[in-house]
Amino acid sequence: MNTDTLTVNDIISASLKNSMTYAEYRTLVTTLVQEKSTTGNDKSEAMAEYTQLNDKRMQRWDKTAKVSEAMKAKIENFDRKVIWLVISESWCGDAAHIMPIINKVAELNDNIDYRVVLRDNNEALMNQFLTNGGKSIPKLIMIDSETNEVLNTFGPRPQVATAMVEEFKANNDTITEEFKTDLQRWYNTDKGQSTIEDLVSLLS
């Protein structure tokens, strides 16, 4: 298939056919952990270890993440049928913190169909939704269910975390392991609330 002649709509349609539910994604990740493997093109031991760590993170957020009553009301009032198509990989640390939160929001409204595709298996799609020229994930594409029109996007991080990363990059040559640890600590403290706020703003 020549992706040069495909429209974004064509690419989205093809990707949706390859997509899975969040529950199917979670099952896939858990299975990969048992096999000491990972999604994506890089099957190294390091990536497999990230997948194992992320499975634990997602288990925790699946159990503990909460949506406030005020946010719940806003989510439940949304009345347009949309697909939230998320590009991800099991080794991605940001995705492990964000994808369970997306699920908590999507579960509150039947108009939101949450689907997942893997980045390395959907290169044409990823190339349409780059962040500053990079294949950053997770990336949520909000699509009209009837027309496949792209309505908005979110990711790879909530706005607060994005600002933290950009500020660090402005003052340092590269992202350090220490900063990555600080970012994980921020996710744990934030408990998904910044992600929920950003997702609710997509719906308004």
TrEMBL record:
One Pfam short name: Thioredoxin_9
InterPro entries, alphabetized: Thioredoxin-like_sf (IPR036249)
Protein's recorded name: Thioredoxin-like protein
Organism of this sequence: Winogradskyella epiphytica
Source lineage: Bacteria, Pseudomonadati, Bacteroidota, Flavobacteriia, Flavobacteriales
